[in-house]
Each structure stands twice: as C-alpha cells, then as structure tokens.
Amino acid sequence: MKLTKKSHACIRLEKAGRTLVIDPGVFSEPDAAAGADALLVTHEHPDHFSEERLRVALDADPAVEVWTLRSVAGQLSAAFPGRVHTVGDGDAFTAAGFDVRVHGELHAVIHPDLPRITNVGFLVDGSVFHPGDALTVPGEPVDTLMLPVMAPWNKVAEVIDYVREIGPRQAIDIHDALLTDLARPVYDTHIQNLGGAGHRRLASGESTGI
Questions:
Q1: DSSP string of 104-142?
Q2: What are the tens digits of pLDDT across the range 121-139?
Q3: Domain ranges within the chain, ordered by starting residue
Q4: What is the model's pTM?
Q5: Is CATH 3.60.15.10 correct for 2-198?
C-alpha cells in the first residue's frame, strides 16, 4: 500500500490501482480529492471537510462513494443518493477494496465553553489509523499512526503520550498546517526521542510504502 501525504490532515492511500482519500479539507490542495475511488471524512470542520470539493469529486465520477459521520453525510446524501454512507464507532466496511474499521465518537475538547462535535477515526486495512481531531485509541494494533501533531486542542506532551499509548511501528505527522518551520525541529525531536516509535514528517506530495 502506498501512502501519500497531502497538506494538513489529508492523506491518499493506493493499492491495486484503487485510491482512498481521507479528509480533503480546505487546508489541503484544491485537487486533493481528485481521482479518488472512495472518500472518508472524519468530521465537519472545514480543514477536514470541504463540501464543494467532495461535490466536485462525486460529480466527476458516478462510481465515487463517501463514508462519513451523520453531520457530514447530511450535507451530501440528498444530492447523491446511495453514494454517501453514514458510519459510526464500531462499524466496518469495504471502500474501493480497502477494509476500514471505525473508531471514536467525539472531537477532542478545544475549550470547555465550546460544545463538542462528533468525530470518527478510520483504521484502514488493519494498518493505517487516521484519528481525525481526537486522540482516539482504537483498541487494536496499529502499524502506522497518522499523528495530529499541532492543533488548538492538543499540546506536545499529549501527542507524545498518544504515540506511547497506541504503540505503532511508526507515526507520521498530520494536522500540521499550523506548525511553523521554525517550530518543527522542536516537535520532531521530542516526539522522536520520547514517543517510543519511529517518527516521520512527510512533505506534501511525498509518498511512502506501508
């Protein structure tokens, strides 16, 4: 399986000529969803979900389908009947030949005064886990953790402890658009030295084999 990092929280997974894209939001490239056979969205925040971009992808190819939670599905399902699937914690499905299990229910706390929205994470082929905007522990082995490294709802100590709790072979940064180049080496050093797993930072468009 080939993993390609796109900007911020978006990744593309490819195998056997099929492509699965997770979270092509507005912080990602405008064409992040282009060419996908299946699309997964973890939650409704615009850095993870762009209704316009998903509509473009769905219009471009009538075979494309979306799996997401209710808050996102409700914005798309009427226009694309039968192609937008609502999923939640504990569900399992196959999308474009990828086996996916759903974990988690709520977005991480940004501030106690802000209501929490729903959020799900996706474990793909029992290997790659994308948690969206939460530090969800899936309760099953993870080879490659997509690590939300910088967000209004986390701090580096929590990020390190999350890697330790999951115990993946490697952690690859996502949710990094807010992290400046000046600060990146600080995060890299702490996560690599304290996380207990291999830590990688891929540039946008860079790929790796899983």
A1: --BPPPS-TTSPPPB--EEEETTTEEE--SS----SS--
A2: 999 999 999 999 999 999 9
A3: 2-198
A4: 0.97
A5: yes
